[in-house]
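ugh finaly. both done.
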Amino acid sequence: MERRQIIEKDPRFYRSLLTIAIPVILQSVITTGVNLVDNIMLGQLTESALSASTQANQFINLYVFAIMGISMGASVLTSRYWGAQNIPALKKVVSIAIWFSLGLSAAFTLADIFLPEQIMRLYFRQEERELIAEGVRYLRWSTATFVLMALSFTLTNTLRSIGHSHVPLIASACAFGINIGANYVFIFGKLGCPAMGVAGAALGTVVARIVESSVIVGSFLSNKQLRFRIRDLFTPFRDLVGEFLHTSIPVLLSDCLLGLGDNVLAIIMGRIGSGFVTANSITMVIQRVSTIVIMGLAFSGCFQTGQVLGKGEVQAARRQGNTYLLIGLVFGALASVVIRLISGTVISLYKITPETREIAMELMDALCIVVVFRTVNSILSKGVLRGGGDTRFLLVADMSTMWLVAVPLGALAGLTLKLPPFFTYLFLYSDQILKAFWCFLRLRSGKWIKHVQGTADFGEIEEDEEEIR
C-alpha cells in the first residue's frame, strides 16, 4: 500500500493559514498591548487597585468564555457552510448565535447591576473590604460591556470563519488608541476629568468596546458575500436549531466550565493572599504576550479544518491536524523562551513589594513549563478538534481535567499544603499538561472528524481509518 502523506506540504495550506492567522495575531498584539498598558497604569496606583481590577475581570472573563463558547460553536458550522457555499444555512446559524449571545448578555448584565458586592466577595477574604469595594466599582462601570461583547464576539468569529479576519483587526486597531487614551484620562484624571482609578479603567474599556463593536457590526452588515440584514434575525431557523445545539452546546458548556474553573482558581488565589493575586495578574499579561501567535494558529486550525471538511476532504483535514500539532510544539518551546527573556523586565515595571516580586518570579518560572503544554492543548482543542466537530469529546476533556485535577490539586497545594508559589502554580494549571496528551491521542485516533448536515458527505471515513491503521 502506498504510504500516505502525514504532514501537509501544499503551499496553499500555508498561505491560507497565514491569511487567517496573521490578522488574529495582530489583533491579539493590540489586545495584549492594551491589557499590558492597563495593568501598568493601575500598577502605578496601588497593589489594591491592580488586585481589585484583576479579580473583577475574572467575572467578566467568565462571560467572555461563555460568549466565546457560543461564537466558536457557531463558527464550527459557519466555516463548514462556507466551505459548502450554503449561504442561507450560514445566515441562519449567525441569527441563532446572536439571539443566544444577547440572552446571555442580559443575564450577566442583571447580575452585574444587582449583585456586584456578592460577586466580589467570592474573590477575596471577607476582611479585605477595600479590595471588595474597589472591585465593585470596576464591575458597576463595566455594565455596558456585556451586550457590546455579545455582538462583537459573535460577528468576529463569523467573519473569521469566512476568511475576513482583517475586519476584527481593523476594529481592534481603532479601539486600541482610544482605550489607552481614555484609560489615561479617566484613571489619572487628565484633561479636566476627575481621577477615577479602577472605575476609570473600566470606563475606558467600555468606550473602546463601543468603537470596536460599531466597526464590526457595520462591516458585517455591509459584507456583499453574505448580504446579512437585520430582518434575517427574524427568519425561521427551526430546521438548524437542532444542529446548532448539537454542535454548539458542548462548546458552550466546555468554555463555560473552563471559565468557571478559572474563576474557582482565582478564588483559590484570593484565599492564598493579595500578593499571590497581584503576582498572578502580572503573570497573566506575560502569558498573553507569549501566546499571541498560538491564538492565531488555533483560530486558523478551527476554520481551515471546518472548511476542508465542508468540502468532504477528510485526508486533507488529517494531514493539516498533524501539521498543526508540529507547529504547536515548536511555538510552545519558543513561547517558553520568550517568557524567560522578558519576565524580569516586565516585573520591574510594577510598584510592588519585594515579597510580591519574589512570588511573581516563581510564577514566571512555572509558566515557562505550563506554556509548552498549553500551546499544544490550545491549538488542538480550540483549533483542529473543534473544527472537526468533536465538541462532545472536548467537553468531557475540559470538565474532567479542570474539575477533577486542576481545581482539587490547586486547592490542596495552595490552601492545605501551602506549597511554594512555583509548585502551587503548576498544580493550579495541571489540567493543561494532562489535556495536551489527551488531545494528542484523540488526534491520532481520527475519531474527531464528524459530519454536519448540509455539507459534503464523507461516509467513507471509517474505511479510510481502517486503511490508515
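ok and the 2nd:
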Amino acid sequence: MKRYYVIFEGRVQHVGFRSRCYQIAIEHGCTGYVRNMSNGMVEMQIQGEPLQIENVLLKIEKGNQFIRVDNVSRKEIALQNEKRFLIL
C-alpha cells in the first residue's frame, strides 16, 4: 500500500477534472481526495496498491477533449486510515 501527494498542472480547472479523477480513483479502489488549488493547479492525495495508483494516474494524464495535463509531480507520503475518495 502506498500514498502519494500529486499536483496536476495544465487545463485542469473548470473542465470536469476533479470529477474525472474521482471516477477513475473509485473504479480502481483507491482512497484519498482531489481539490482545486488557488493557483489554477489541482492537488490529489491517493492511496492504494502501487499498480492501482499507476493505472489511475495514467488514465488521468491522458486527459480528454477538455482536460489537458501538462505536468504531474508526486511524492510519497504517510498512509492514512480512510474508507473512500472525496472531491473537496
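summary for the 2nd one i guess: The longest helix spans residues 50-62.
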